[in-house]
Design brief:
Strands 7-11-12-3-13-14 form a 6-stranded mixed sheet, sandwiched between helices. Strands 2-1-4-5-6 form a 5-stranded antiparallel sheet, with helices on one face. About 0% of the residues have low confidence. It starts with a strand and ends in a 5-residue tail after the last strand. Among the domains are: about 200 residues, Rossmann fold; about 180 residues, Helix Hairpins, CATH 1.10.287; about 100 residues. The chain is flat, with a radius of gyration of 41 Å. Helix 4 packs across helix 15 and helix 9 runs antiparallel to helix 11. It has about 700 residues and is of the alpha/beta class. The chain contains 17 helices and 14 strands. Strand 4 and strand 5 form a beta hairpin. The longest helix has about 45 residues.
């Protein structure tokens, strides 16, 4: 989303409506999109900042440190001392309409969002929120059509709970700092996971789990109805007990693998700190990944071949199936002709009988003349021949039964079109290709491992040996895990066999029972796959945020040589790592840079396109860091709207340094006649139209 214009109607200190409504444009002639709005304290910067949030979500939070998240500004002036959203002077003059209209660009389309309030019918002077009614519309300016699900449309652009990361409140910089540093605060992870779109993935896992529980309940219900056989039940219990033991062993192996992997990570991290070791390690890592990928592909192909093999026999008897189908088709055609001929004979006999007795023709209804003695003899002779033919056909009968022939034809056709030999050949070719890739990867890995120079320290050699040992141990554990999975699979099959015995009808489970089991197994596999993908995505996003935030922090910090990186834990808690690889304490100003870095990283990695609105930007910063921050923000790809305090950035200085990167700069000035009104003055313009 890119803001193009903000129009204020009797909004807080901005009095005016219709042609006199106050406007701020952000649509630059050459694509300039940024905005700087100067103003002293109490001159309306915050009100303009809040107008954007109001347009999006329909409410404005009171700006008090530590205020409750549900404490909102009133719509109109009342007995309370809270500043209302409706301009006080307009209210006193008897004008009760106010609102905010914004124009913006989103997904290559332009929209106009209008959110306003007016007094309800029958109300003379509104004094409470309940006496006001809202009008909310979103119009596509390209098509003229209106968006129906308006708030959903807005929330898809930016959910309200994430607005704090895009509409940065510099007055509350300490709260941002504490949020990123407090290891006990569970809200931060929730915020960050929301902005990185993790809840969607988490909800998917929960949905799979819920459906799995439902299927398990169905299985339990069927099992109770159809269970029989004490001996089978005992065996089933023993098998399930063995399954539990084997699964526990599998868990131990997986924990052992995880421990080896963590230790390997520590060794790799040390080796990466050595220039030569890093080169060697990078090579090894690449070859190891190639090897692991090849192993995974080999295992996957093996599973596919195992599934395809049971049906491959069909391909061997293809010729026999086609020959049998041809005979069946001929027999079916013969039966059709026989049945057809019997019908024709009956029709002819009926016609001859009608002629013999002078009856009406069955075909046309015409009364037939009684034949002469000669004609009668010929008819009788023809009748005898037809009856003999019909008798022969009747004796032949339809053998085998036509229904049997059709069912046999259908079964053979299904077998014919379920051939898997070609698939097996293709899989075999893929298997050989990946085995070759694995062999090459192993050779390259071994070669890289031997390229250790004599100049390397004994500790490097020791760690490389340790690295090889850990890779070997991980390989052994992986084999054990694979073997154990096969044992568990065998036990699963054994359990299924006993469960079949306990089913109804000679060990055969009811169809509904089997469907429930298949559904549960499928849901388990889908959930496991989903969780695996989610875990990888979560870790990748954490690394992306960490790397992006580090890059921004080092650009902003004047003492960048003193720091190595920003570290973000699995729970998204933050620490500053100095060049000695130790956690470093920083000043309030440095933490302000950290907050900007994290916020910029989060908004970048989220994929959410929304302007970064900052009021004020330089709180707790010195001049150097403030300048660095402005330079970075105004040169970024994001649209940035800044409300600097008068002491932070003088208008003349700001215009000279930054106006060329902005669509426009504005000055807020208190109206000389009415202190409840703020005027908006255009200073520098690169707008399409002034």
């Amino acid at each position: 989303m890119r803001l193009l214009e903000i129009e204020l109607t009797n909004w807080q200190p901005y009095k005016g409506a219709g042609k006199n409504a106050r406007k701020v444009s952000l649509d630059g002639k050459n694509g300039e999109k940024n905005l700087i709005i100067y103003g002293q304290n109490t001159h309306g910067k915050t009100a303009l900042w809040q107008a954007i949030r109001f347009a999006m979500f329909g409410r404005v939070q009171k700006r008090i440190s530590g205020v409750n998240d549900n404490d909102w500004k009133p719509l109109v002036a009342s007995e309370t001392k809270d500043e209302p959203l409706l301009n006080v002077t307009a209210h006193e003059e008897g004008t009760y309409d106010f609102g905010v209209r914004i124009k913006f660009e989103h997904n290559d389309a332009k929209y106009e969002l209008d959110r306003s309030y007016s007094k309800k019918s029958g109300i003379t002077i509104p004094r409470r929120n309940s006496q006001m009614e809202q009008t909310f519309t979103i119009r596509n300016l390209d098509t003229g059509s209106y968006v129906q699900e308006k708030q959903k449309f807005v929330n898809d652009i930016l959910p309200e709970e994430l607005a704090r990361f895009f509409m940065f409140d510099g007055e509350r910089i300490r709260e941002y700092r504490d949020l990123f540093r407090d290891t006990k605060d569970v809200h931060l992870r929730n915020y960050i996971e929301a902005i990185l779109r993790f809840p969607v993935l988490t909800q998917g896992s929960e949905d799979f789990e819920k459906m799995e529980r439902t299927a398990a309940g169905q299985i339990s219900k069927h099992a109770k109805k159809h269970r029989k056989g004490e001996a089978a039940q005992i065996k089933l219990s023993e098998t399930e007990s063995n399954l539990e033991v084997e699964n526990d062993i599998l868990t131990d192996y997986e924990e052992e693998q995880e421990n080896y992997t963590i230790e390997l990570g520590r060794v790799n991290e040390w080796l990466k700190s050595e220039e030569e070791g890093k080169r060697l390690l990078d090579q090894q890592d690449g070859f190891q990944r190639d090897k692991e990928q090849a192993i995974e592909e080999i295992e996957s192909i093996g599973k596919k071949m195992s599934k395809a093999l049971p049906g491959a026999w069909r391909a061997i008897i293809t010729n026999k199936i086609e020959s049998r189908l041809e005979r069946l088709e001929k027999e079916i055609e013969r039966q059709k002709k026989q049945t057809q001929r019997q019908g024709e004979i009956k029709t002819e006999l009926n016609h001859l009988n009608n002629r013999l007795h002078g009856r009406d023709c069955s075909a046309c209804g015409t009364t037939l003349e009684k034949p002469s003695r000669k004609e009668e003899a010929e008819i009788l002779e023809e009748k005898v021949e037809l009856e003999n033919e019909h008798e022969k056909l009747e004796k032949a009968r339809l053998d085998p039964d036509p229904d049997f022939l059709y069912k046999r034809q259908k079964a053979l056709t299904n077998i014919k079109y379920d051939m898997k030999l070609d698939m097996l050949i293709s899989l075999e070719e893929d298997l050989l290709r990946w085995k070759n890739k694995k062999r090459v990867a192993v050779q390259n890995f071994d070669k890289a491992s031997k390229n250790i120079t004599k100049d390397q320290a004994n500790k490097l050699a020791e760690n490389i040996v340790k690295q090889r040992d850990l890779y070997s141990k991980i390989g052994i554990v992986k084999t054990r895990i694979s073997d154990k999975i096969e044992v568990i699979q065998d036990l699963d099959d054994e359990r299924d066999r006993f469960q079949d015995i306990l089913g109804v009808g000679g060990g055969k489970k009811p169809t509904a029972y089997r469907k429930a089991e298949i559904k549960k197994q499928l849901l388990q596999e889908l959930k496991n796959a989903w969780d695996s993908v989610t875990a990888v995505h979560r870790e990748n996003q954490r690394k992306n945020v960490e790397e992006t935030a580090t890059d921004v922090f080092l650009k902003l910090s004047e003492k960048r040589d003193d720091y190595k990186k920003l570290n973000i834990s699995e729970n998204f808690q933050l620490s500053i790592i100095n060049n000695k690889n130790k956690s470093d304490s920083a000043s309030q100003g440095q933490w302000a840079l950290v907050a900007y870095s994290i916020l910029d990283a989060l908004t970048t990695c989220s994929g959410i396109e929304f302007p970064m609105v900052i009021d004020p930007p330089g709180r707790s910063m010195d001049d150097v860091h403030f300048t660095n921050t402005l330079e970075y923000l105004l040169n970024s790809k994001k649209q940035v709207i800044i409300f600097p305090e008068g002491s932070e950035l003088l208008p003349d200085v700001g215009d000279e340094s930054y106006s060329h990167r902005c669509a426009a700069t504005y000055q807020l000035s208190q109206n000389k006649k009415d202190s409840n009104i703020t005027d908006i003055i255009l200073r520098k313009s690169n707008l399409r139209s002034n």
